[in-house]
Structure formats: C-alpha cells, structure tokens
Amino acid sequence: MKKIYSASLTPLTEKGTIDRESLRKMLERNIRHGIKGFFMLGSMGEGPQLNMELSRELISMSSEIIAGRAELIAGINGNGLASSLELMKAYSDIKFDSYVFIHPPRTFY
User: What is the pTM of this model?
Assistant: First the structure.
C-alpha cells in the first residue's frame, strides 16, 4: 500500500513565532484526510530561515500534535556540517521517525 506524505508549511504569527493553533488545525485536518506522514522544515519553504530554537519548537509541537498517528520527518537545514549536527542533537529528545539531511548550499568552489 502506498502512503501519502505532506511537505508541510510552518505557520508563523506576525511576530515570527510558531502559530500552534494553526499548526494543530493543519496537522489534524491532514490526518483526517488520510495523510500518513509529514515532512517538516524542508528546503523549499521557511525551514532554512528558522533558527535552531524555532526549528526545535516546530518539531516538538508537531510530535505532540501528531502523537504517533502519522510519521514525522524532520528536515535538517544547517549551513554546514557543524550546524547540521547541532540541529540533529537539538532534536534528539523529541519523538519523530526520520531525518532528512538537506545539503547546505555550496559555500566555496
């Protein structure tokens, strides 16, 4: 059986914080409609723009809301190996299913 995953957006307030209620509504609606997994903090949206604190908060909130009813994939958008490893460590105590390591943009030629 094939599964459908959503490359999900990050709802933010006007102040730049995570909009928990909008995140909850989005995840709950998608679960009701059969989405089997969520990819948070991908490379095409706001993921690379969020600091470590907001990234961790989003993965943590998403994990709490999903509560094992779907898979959760956390994007790693560091600007280099060291910051990517820091993000992985920052997520280490949060329950989710997989990482997607997104290679940083080329910084030298």
Answer: 0.88
